[in-house]
């Protein structure tokens, strides 16, 4: 009996991963060929094998679409993973970097940094943006942790996070309102969230940061699994809770900060994707959920980005507009289901 | 006390640096069952949380074998001590087997993948507490009794030397209480696992434990084998029982005896009186009873419920004085209930007493 249960599980995991990879490849191809300049599939193949190096299509693919696709995949994965970590940390399925005001905190500090650097130095490096976003994230996280000492009730804590988000957004708006027009050209598009205008340099930085952090998260899957039973049980299994909690919060902050630094705040991905993945796998076991969530987040963001680019072309939508449309209903469904389960 | 397996020295526990219970000095042998009893909020959980290191101790030391608890890493401790806690956990999408398998945590590798041997341990632990048939059910969809057993299997699976349980019987009905406690008993005696737990049910505590720790106010009121700790006055003091009584011999609890001037006499013996006493008590009717020998169960209960008991030593002829006393009491009453007397007890003085009772106006059988 146990053998067959194990086997059923394993085949389910395999199926989900196969489907995710298929979706990843499919959506990548769609993302390359669809756009204001349509690229026929044959042409794509020709370019991929290295012919027609000086055609317009070649530069569209290599200079515009490919970096954007990679970025959407990396950042989408990072965002979902960050959500998964925060949900485990707070023991609440609705926790996520956007809801808890972590993205807004990052956005505020990034806005300040951008204006400051652009007006003094005329340029700002992507590493500086990541550091700024990280500082902003940590600030929000710090507030949330302070509140969580006083507030034992998770629902109130989430409301607190939302309020922090509003305060940070207000400060950002205030700064933007009074900044020089020339300093905030970039800021406008960025602060609404978008994967457009990514360079290969950006991709490289994001890939390294997210790659290392993601690997670290995967290595933590064992203690995360223990933590799912609650702090006291995790400790009795030999987890050093203090160190573990710090690691968890740092890793999730780095992940969401990287996303915010490059693409601005993006909503709902962090909540919707881990939930859908856990349902699909029918387990919350971090060892399988972590890689699947990363893949799922990548697919979800690439699909949303495709819609953002093409739905009302030539007008491009903000990425959050699309992720909200698809992500928010998932969250609502989740809450209804939880209510029913009680 | 140096040879004791688990011991504390001047241990002081509490929250946020504020001491709650001072100077706990106890020693426990390997394989013993120790139960913490005391009123709600007396700090039983605080002590358990401190010896499992969920709470920082405020003073003193805890030793397991010869190792100071503080000097052990969490990992070292996890192979020696497992816990079953009161807080309700609501794990997401986990089967009972998944929950039990988390007990293997200290023994698995970096990624926590179970080996063949680990799987066997999981199965063995589930068999020990008889939850094999629900192995693939969702943990959130099982009954309280099953849940406690699954959690116990999880603790067993951790292969500890000590298992600590915080009120493991709280949500259970009587059948599951007995089931759980007998599993603990077997485990302690066969595998030499030390059990430290808190219980609300003092009657069960008395029956299962090798040692009892009474927590009262800011100190340990008493610690020792149940025979010495469970003395009626002790329990009364510990729980501040003002109404009702506690019978240390059988560990039973009685409501307070009816107040007032007794107008009822109960003739009984050999157990026939118990149901009558209980009925009278429920109707709040005070009563006398006799003549009972001191080793009679009726006598035992009557001492707690009757206004007065005419009792005589066992294995000796009934003295005339007792008969006279009983008759005097009977004459004050307008009701004499004969609950039935065992044939052997019908020695002459008692037979005479019953004869005389038959003549009285309020006699009933």
What would you say this structure looks like, in words?
The complex is a heterodimer of chains A (342) and B (365). Chain A is mainly α and 342 residues long. Chain A has one domain: ABC transporter involved in vitamin B12 uptake, BtuC. Helices cover 79% and strands 0% of the residues of chain A. The two termini of chain A are 30 Å apart. The mean pLDDT of chain A is 87. Chain B is an alpha/beta fold and 365 residues long. Helices cover 35% and strands 23% of the residues of chain B. A six-stranded mixed beta sheet of chain B has the order 7-8-9-4-10-11, with helices on both faces. Chain B is elongated and about 90 Å long.
Q: Which key phrases capture this entry?
A:
heterodimer; A: 342 residues; mainly alpha; ABC transporter involved in vitamin B12 uptake, BtuC; 79% helix; 0% strand; globular; B: 365 residues; alpha/beta; six-stranded mixed beta sheet; five-stranded antiparallel beta sheet; 18 strands; elongated
């Amino acid at each position: 009996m146990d053998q067959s249960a194990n086997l059923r599980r394993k085949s389910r995991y395999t199926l989900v991963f196969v489907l995710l990879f298929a979706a990843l490849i499919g959506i990548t191809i769609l993302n390359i060929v669809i756009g204001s300049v349509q690229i026929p599939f044959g042409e794509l193949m020709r370019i991929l094998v290295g012919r027609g190096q000086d055609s317009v299509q070649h530069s569209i693919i290599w200079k515009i679409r490919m970096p954007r696709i990679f970025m959407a995949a990396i950042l989408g994965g990072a965002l979902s993973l960050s959500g998964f970590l925060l949900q485990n940390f707070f023991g609440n399925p609705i926790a996520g970097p956007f809801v808890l005001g972590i993205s807004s905190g990052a956005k505020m500090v990034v806005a300040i940094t951008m204006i400051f650097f652009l007006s003094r130095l005329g340029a700002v490096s992507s590493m500086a943006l990541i550091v700024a976003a990280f500082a902003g994230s940590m600030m929000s996280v710090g507030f949330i942790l302070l509140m969580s000492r006083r507030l034992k009730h998770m629902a109130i804590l989430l409301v607190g996070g939302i309020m922090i988000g509003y305060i940070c957004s207000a400060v950002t708006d205030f700064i933007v309102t009074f900044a020089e027009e020339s300093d905030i050209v970039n800021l406008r598009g960025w602060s609404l969230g978008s994967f457009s205008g990514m360079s290969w340099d950006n991709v490289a930085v994001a890939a390294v940061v997210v790659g290392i952090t993601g690997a670290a998260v995967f290595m933590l899957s064992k203690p995360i699994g223990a933590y799912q039973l609650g702090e006291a049980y995790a400790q009795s299994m030999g987890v050093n809770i203090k160190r573990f909690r710090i690691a968890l919060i740092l890793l999730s902050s780095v992940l969401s900060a990287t996303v915010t630094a490059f693409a601005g705040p993006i909503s709902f991905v962090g909540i919707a994707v881990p939930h859908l993945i856990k349902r699909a796998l029918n387990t919350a076991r971090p060892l399988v959920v972590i890689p699947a969530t990363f893949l799922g987040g990548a697919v979800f963001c690439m699909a949303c980005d495709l819609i953002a680019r093409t739905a009302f072309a030539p007008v491009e939508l903000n990425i959050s507009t699309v992720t909200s449309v698809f992500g928010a209903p998932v969250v609502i469904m989740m809450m209804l289901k939880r209510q029913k389960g009680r | 006390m140096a040879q004791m397996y688990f011991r504390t020295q001047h241990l002081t526990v509490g929250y946020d640096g504020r001491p709650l219970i001072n100077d706990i000095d106890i020693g426990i042998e390997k394989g013993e069952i120790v139960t913490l009893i005391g009123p709600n909020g007396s700090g039983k959980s605080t002590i358990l949380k401190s010896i499992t290191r969920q709470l920082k101790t405020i003073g003193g030391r805890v030793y397991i074998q010869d190792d100071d608890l503080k000097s052990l890493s969490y990992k070292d401790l996890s192979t020696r001590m497992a816990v079953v806690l009161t807080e309700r956990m609501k794990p997401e999408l986990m089967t009972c087997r998944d929950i039990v398998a988390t007990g293997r945590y200290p023994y698995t590798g970096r990624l926590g993948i179970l080996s063949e041997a680990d799987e066997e341990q999981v199965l063995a632990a589930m068999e020990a507490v008889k939850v094999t048939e629900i192995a693939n059910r969702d943990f959130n969809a099982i009954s309280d009794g099953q849940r406690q057993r699954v959690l116990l299997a999880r603790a067993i699976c951790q292969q500890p030397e000590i298992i600590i349980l915080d009120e493991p019987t709280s949500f259970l009905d009587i059948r599951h209480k007995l089931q759980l406690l007998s599993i603990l008993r077997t485990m302690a005696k066969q595998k030499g696992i030390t059990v430290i737990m808190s219980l609300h049910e003092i009657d069960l505590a008395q029956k299962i434990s090798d040692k009892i720790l009474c927590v009262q106010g800011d100190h340990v009121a008493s610690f020792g084998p149940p025979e010495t700790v469970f003395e009626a006055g002790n329990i009364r003091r510990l729980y501040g029982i003002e109404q009702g009584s506690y019978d240390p011999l059988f560990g039973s609890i009685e409501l307070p005896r009816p107040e007032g001037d007794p107008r009822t006499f109960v003739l009984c013996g050999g157990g026939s009186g118990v149901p009558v006493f209980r009925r009278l008590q429920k109707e709040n009717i005070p009563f006398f009873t006799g003549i009972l020998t001191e080793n009679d169960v009726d006598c035992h209960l009557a001492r707690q419920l009757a206004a007065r008991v005419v009792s005589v030593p066992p294995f000796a002829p009934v003295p005339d004085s007792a008969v006279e006393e009983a008759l005097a009491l009977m004459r004050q009453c307008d009701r004499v209930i004969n609950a039935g007397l065992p044939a052997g007890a019908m020695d002459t003085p008692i037979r005479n007493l019953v004869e005389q009772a038959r003549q009285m106006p309020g006699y009933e059988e």
